[in-house]
Amino acid sequence: MTGFDEREPEAAELVRPYVITKGRGLPDEEQLSLITLVTAASDDQQRPTRLSPEEQSLLELCTAGYLSVAEIAGHTRLPMGVVKILLSALTEGGYLITRPPVQRARLADRQILEEVLNGLRTKFG
Amino acid sequence: MTRYIQNPVLWALLVAVLGAVVVIVRQRRAARALRREIEELKTHYSELETSYSKSVEAEKERAQDATKTVLKSAMRTLQGLAAEQQLIISGLQNKYGESVILQDLLEIDHTNSQFGRRAQSIAVLCDGWLGRQREVASVYDVVRSAQGRIRHYRRVEILSQVDFGITSRAVEPVALALAELLDNATSYSSPDTVVEINIRTVPKGVCIVVDDAGVGMNDEERAKAAKLLSSERVTGVSGLGSPPQFGFAVIGVLCERYGFEVSVDSDSPYGGVRSVLLLPHDLLTGMPDKKAPAPSVPAAPARDPHGPEPALTASSTGDGLPRRRRKRPMAIVPGTASGTTSTSTRSGAETAAIMGAFQRGTQSGRATGADTADQTSSTRDASSEGHEVS
């Protein structure tokens, strides 16, 4: 992340982030948190040319598989919130699928596990 | 006769006649002198008049130059401050990108951009500094930059793109001129209408067409605009009216100085004004290298899925600047990406076998070691997460 600060210190970005987001507001935290997983809706490249370069690069990034919002933001040079706004817009447009973060597995019943363990022991010795 | 001679009346008459003659002659001479004086005065007066108007003209020019100089340096300060503030805001946006403050930061950024643009416009009219030189940028990005400098940027829609870049020298002037066009377009059309931008390639270069759905211009306004856009406009900031209308004057100066063309003499299909900014070929270049490292990421594993070193793969892909490549914070990504691609090529059975082996390993580990409840639960979590991911 510190890499971004090394750019020419006197030149701000030509295209400002609020133009990239087209003035849209931040999505809800429930809708898109840092660990929400995101992937492209379909692999085929039938993307409309109306998407901005930033949106297209986000889509490209997401085609490889599920990535968390935090990871995606790390790969762009945009502020986290801006990435969130773009991702939620892309999701609304049907280009992306979001999945709530993986739940922590509940502690399984110890008894069942022991039974499984015993079963495995008897089978594999 | 002698009777007459002796008559004093005759003498008196004579004296009177002589006196009269003398008086008349004198008067005549005086009149002539006066007339000459008047003539002289007249020429003198006209001389004075011309020299006066000349000096007034010169003084006016000097005053205008002085105003220009003062404004120029004042604007230079303001522009510098606006640019500085923009940098600070950028820093804040990156720093607080995750918080709700971002929304407000974006608003501040927008206001700051408008403020910077105003200062820039006045500077342009005073033959001043335009701002720092930018890197080569795509036409699309320059248009978006212009879009960000006006108040109602949300109403602007860019409908098409071209694969051209704008030379670094022309990036800022084109963005500024286009911003003035967009400002006019959005100010003179109703707030619920959209201003459309089409970018087209034409034989002479690239056209940026701005259509608004406003009320359009009448002939007088059109003539005035054409005059401001042409080289016969008045220079300087005086005569722009109050509130001052910078737009066309600024565009005129920029067109002349940087060699692009702007015309506003046609109607848009929506009834408003269609303004066209024509970029000639010598202001155009190829598309700039993509700045964002993101787009090249999926390409890296695709080209060389078993790249031994992620860094090596990254430097060999694309044609981006090595400087950017080096500081990319995501050299890990090609590695992980190639990892996922290799797992995805495994068949289901292979995956199952691997997972089974893993399970067996943990089993045997637990069997030999003292299996406390904590250890088992943590392994359980780890393995269940592993299942979820694969």
User: What is the rounded distance between the termini of chain A?
Assistant: 51 Å
Radius of gyration of chain A: 21 Å
- Which outline of chain A best applies? elongated
What is the CATH C-level name of the domain at 133-285 in chain B? Alpha Beta
Mean pLDDT of chain A: 79
State the total count of DSSP E strands of chain A. Answer: 3
In brief:
Chain A has 125 residues and is mainly alpha-helical. Chain A has helices at 17-20, 53-62, 69-75, 80-92, 110-124, and strands at 37-40, 67-68, 96-99.
Structural write-up:
- By secondary structure, chain A is mostly helical.
- Helix content of chain A is about 40%, strand content about 10%.
- Chain A has 5 helices and 3 strands.
- Chain A has helices spanning about 15-20, 55-60, 70-75, 80-90, 110-125, and strands at about 35-40, 65-70, 95-100.
- In chain A, strands 2-1-3 form a 3-stranded antiparallel sheet.
- The N and C termini of chain A lie far apart (about 50 Å).
- Chain B is α+β, with helices and mostly antiparallel strands and about 400 residues long.
- Among the domains of chain B are: about 135-285, Heat Shock Protein 90; about 290-345, no CATH class.
- Chain B has 13 helices and 8 strands.
- In chain B, a hairpin with a 5-residue loop joins strand 6 (about 260-265) and strand 7 (about 275-280).
- The longest helix of chain B has about 90 residues, at about 10-95.
- Chains A and B meet through helix 1, helix 2, helix 3, helix 4 and helix 5 of A and helix 2, helix 3, strand 1, helix 4 and helix 8 of B.
